[in-house]
Amino acid sequence: MYLSKGEEATRYILEKVDNISKTKLIKLLFLADRSFLKTNKADLSITGFRYVRYFYGPYSVEIEDVVGSLSIKGLIEYRKHITPKDEVYLISKTDKKVKFEHLKEEEKKTLAKIAEEFGSKSLPEILDKIYDLDEVKRAEFGDEITFSI
User: Fold this and answer.
1) What residue spans define the domains of the chain?
2) Where are the alpha helices (DSSP H) in 17-104?
3) Which of 17, 77, 123, 149 is the most exposed place for a label (fewest CB within 10 A)?
4) Strands 87-93 and 76-82
5) d(CA 22, CA 26)
6) What stretches of 62-112 adopt beta strand conformation (E)?
7) Summary mean pLDDT of the chain
């Protein structure tokens, strides 16, 4: 089964941090892309996603297609979870095995590092870190967040 690199990166994060909100997943992918670009002085991010500053920090419209595709392929479960305070979209991996054919070892290391560092943190803790980044501070609402290397 063919997976795009963005799909592989998303599922790889879920291998490390399962059953998380879509919002938290996006933030982890953003942090991984940023870390990879800065650490490796790379020209391209891991996912290739474009991020804009949105209501809860960086957001990528590409994640909608990736989540939909992974769900159709049976590689994730995507469901709405309603609480008395809000509704959250939760994502978890399924038991189907994935071959990570497009991710390079350095990219896997970066994804694993971000998952380990931020996977158990709450969304507000992650957002505190993200809102303190120069790239995010510079971007106005709706603007693309560009990474300075």
Assistant:
1) 5-138
2) 22-40, 62-72
3) 149
4) antiparallel
5) 6
6) 76-82, 87-93
7) 93
Residues in the chain: 149
Residues of the chain with pLDDT > 90: what percent? Answer: 81
Beta strands, E only, the chain: 20-21, 52-54, 57-59, 76-82, 87-93
Lookup result for tokens 């106005």: 140
- List, for residues 90-100, the tens digit of each pLDDT value: 999 999 999 99
pLDDT tens readout for residues 2-38: 899 999 999 999 999 989 999 999 999 999 999 999 9
Q: Which helix (H) or strand (E) holds 13?
A: helix 5-16
Residue type, 109: K
In this predicted structure, the answer to whether residue 42 has a pLDDT above a threshold of 80 is no
Q: Has domain 5-138 been given CATH number 1.10.10? A: yes
